[in-house]
Every structure is written in structure tokens, then in C-alpha cells.
Amino acid sequence: MNEYDSNRILDLTKKINYTSTNNIKEADCYVLNTCHIREKATDKVYHDIGRVKKEFRNKKKPIVLIAGCVAQAEGDILLEREKYIDAIVGPQSYHEINKIILSIKDKDKKINLTEFEAIEKFDELKLTKNSNSKISSFLTIQEGCDKFCKFCVVPYTRGPEYSRPLSEIISEANQLVYNGSREIILLGQNVNAYNFKNKRLSDLLYLLSEIKNLQRIRYTTSHPKDFTLDLIEAHGKCAKLMPLLHLPVQSGSTKILKNMNRNHSIKQYLEIINRLKEKNSSIKFSSDFIIAYPGETKDDFEKTISLVKEVGFINSYSFIFSPRPGTPAGNLQEVDSKIAKERLFIFQHIADEIKKNYRKKLINSNAKVLFENKIKNENKFFGRDEYFNSVIVNSREDLTGKIRNVKINQCNQNTLFGEVITDTQHKEHAA
Ligand code: SAM
Ligand code: SF4
To answer: What is the pTM of this model?
Structure first.
């Protein structure tokens, strides 16, 4: 979501004649868009500002803005401690960025803008063309969270759940496709909580499917509690919806899920997975895990391991519980750090083995790949298959924006390598 927000910040600042630069030395204004989900986020802000200070030693300082969730949560402290910062802009206030920049230029004053209303931001953004022309583009449809999992800062930094109007989303999607996008990834902290005048995520998926040149749709991140039957149904009916679902579970123990305030059991989670498989037999899953949540026993941890093996997640994102100030779990007694590290090691080893086995089986199979870009100075193209795996092929033809059948020949931990095959070869292989 921060990538989407950063692009929108860029679109907004173009209106006052700013453009992006890859050369930090050239910048007149430096925007640091931050994430607060795990600890060390604030340290990173000070570290990055240190880098900017170094670059601009003995030169006129650039305007320095801190945006995102660290700004929202710790704005006052940042402004007090680091005088090099000119302004703090929370995630629901960045539509005001031009006013902020111009006012700093004029009056040299410090600003802290951390309003919570998402509606105003999106009202402003709908008037600003999304200029992103990447083959695969993000589109935020929902923001904020009302779920208050005990470990999480999001409800405090992004504010309450808000769903953007359907028509605004469709119009932004059309703009992205017009700019050249062929895949749209719908974003939200709880994307499947989307509800605008009783129109749900499933309604949106069907409407987006009608956009002619849009080839692929994905969405992230969804919550098991909001996985309604209409959405499960859409996975069987909506051909443009890709068959990889990221469905965070956090723990394999229902007791821990209850302590986290996740509001569902492992039985209910597995029911969703099984129903989705009934609707779409090719669907696969990825998930997030918090290891060593306060109170996690050996038995709870083993339940997490069993779940990973049972579902066979093709990608697992796992972190040791990180206590966040201001959250209900922030003050709980932590699991001994040596035990926590051991559990993370065991978990990641097993999750990696599952991933490796899955990827090994892809060798000699065919994949449908949407190509995103040419690799610099090489006749190679980068794309993704339906399961979001990175794929690289050699090609003299410009494959950007095209979907091709690719025979996979090799793989490493992160990338699959293959060759484009013709339609006849594809049919022969299938036969
Ligand atoms: N809304 C999504 C959900 O409920 O599944 C997840 C959004 S959260 C921004 C992304 C991931 O960060 C979570 O799934 C969780 O695994 C991880 N996370 C959040 N707070 C954490 C914490 N305090 N310690 C460790 N991991 C955390
Ligand atoms: Fe955080 Fe997701 Fe829980 Fe909301 S549902 S509080 S975003 S983990």
C-alpha cells in the first residue's frame, strides 16, 4: 500500500511541477513514506535522515517530509527530536502535500498533519489522474481496520475501515488500463471487508472483469472473518481472478487466535480453504504467521507447523511477534527470545521445504506468464505466472504486456527460468 501511496504522492506533486529523481543529490524535496507494522521502523527514519543530511552537508537542505504510519504514530516525537524534518504527513492526509510543500517554501514553518478522515483524501485523489503505467499496478479500494487484533498498530495508524465508491475504483482501473496496465492488484488492509452501499469485493471483481484489456486481477490482504460465500463463488466464476490467494492465518492454534482477537477458529479457516478448492481446483495459498505470540506453548507452535504442512502454502511470511507500543499485546509477557528464534528457524525451514518441493514440480511444466519488463542490457524478459512466481525467459521479441506459454526449465529460490513455446508446442505438451 505504501508503494501505491508513494505513486499517488508523486502524481499530486506533479501539479506543482515536481518530478521524481533517482539521484538523491538532486532532490529539492525528500519524502520518506514509512511503515510502522514491526519495531525498528522509527530507527530507520532517523537512519535515512542521517543519509540525507550527509548528502546535503554544506548545501541548501531539501524539504524533508515524513509520511505514512510512523508519521501518524510518532509525529510529535519525530518533529521534536529531529529538527531536519519539516513536516509530518499521516497516511490519510497526504492529499494536502502540495499545500504543505508550498507553505514550507514560503514560510519556513513546521507542520504536523495527521487527520484521520480517508474520505477527503480519496475525494482529492479522484481528481488526480493515476499516471502509473506499470504492466502490474496496485489500486487501493479499502483502507483502515476495525478488527483490533491485539498485536497490530493498523487500526491506530490507518484509522477505521473505509471503502472507496465503486465508480471511482472502476474509473481509476480504466485509467490504469488505458496507461498500459494489464494486471491490477486491489489493495486494502482488509480488502475483503470492502463494502460500498452493499456492493462487495465480489461485485467489484465481476465489474473489473469487463474491462477489455485488463487480463489479470488479484487482491490483498484478505481476512478469514470477511470471507463470504459470494467471494468464494467468485473464485470459481471470475476467469481473470488469479488462482493464488494470500489469506493470513497468523497461528495454527485456535487458542492463540482467540488471544489475538482474530475472531475465527482453525476449523473455520480450513473450511474456507476447502470451499475455495471446491470452486477452483487449481487454487493455491500463501499466508502470514506470527511466531511466538505471548502465551504460545510448544503445543500451539506444533499446531502451526501441522497447519503449514496440511495447507501446503506456496509462500509463507513469518516474523517473531514484535510488541507494538499502544496495542493491547504490547505489554504482555513475551516468549523467551531464544525459544522464539528457534521456533522461527524451525518454521521457516519447513515452510521453505514446502516451497522448494512445489517449485521443483514446476520444472518441465507450462506456465502462463504475463511479461512486465525487459531486463536492462539483455535479451531477457521478466514476468509472473498465475501464482505470482517470477519468471525469466530469453526473447528477441518484445514481450512486455503480453501473456505467453512458457516451459519452465530451471528454478532457484526466487525465480523460475524458461522458454516461450509456440501454440503448437503448447498443444503437443498438453496432449
Ligand atoms: N489485515 C491483514 C490480516 O489481518 O491478515 C494483515 C495486515 S498486517 C498489515 C500484515 C502482517 O503483519 C500481519 O498479517 C501479521 O502477520 C504481521 N504483523 C502485524 N503486527 C505484527 C506484530 N506486532 N508482530 C509481528 N508481526 C506483525
Ligand atoms: Fe491489523 Fe489485519 Fe488485524 Fe486489522 S485485521 S488489526 S490490519 S492484523
So the answer is: 0.92
Amino acid type, 238 = C
Rounded Cα distance, 18 and 10, in Å: 8
Q: What is the mean pLDDT of residues 334-343?
A: 97
Asked if residue 246 has its Cβ within 6 Å of ligand 1, the reply is no
Q: Using the mean position of ligand 1's atoms as its centre, give its distance from the Cα of residue 153 in Å.
A: 9
CA dist 386 and 244 (Å) reads: 7
What is the rounded CA–CA span in Å between residue 224 and residue 98? 38
Interval 104-128: pLDDT, tens: 877 766 777 777 677 788 888 888 8
On whether the CB atoms of residues 310 and 304 are closer than 8 A, the answer is no
Q: Which of 82-96, 105-119, 241-255 has the lowest mean pLDDT?
A: 105-119
Domain that holds residue 179: 120-360
Beta bridge partners of 67: 33, 89
Residues 47 and 126 placed together within one structural domain of the fold: no
Query: Closest residue (by CA) to atom 19 of ligand 1?
Result: 152
If asked whether residues 7 and 65 sit together in one domain, one would say yes
Least confident of 47-61, 225-239, 266-280, 282-296: 47-61
**Ligand 1 atom with least separation from CA of 323:** 23
Q: How far apart are CA 193 and CA 170, in angstroms?
A: 18
Q: Are residues 76 and 38 part of one domain?
A: yes
Listed residue (200, 161, 185, 291) closest to 241, CA to CA: 185
Please indicate, yes or no, whether residues 74 and 141 belong to a single structural domain of this protein: no
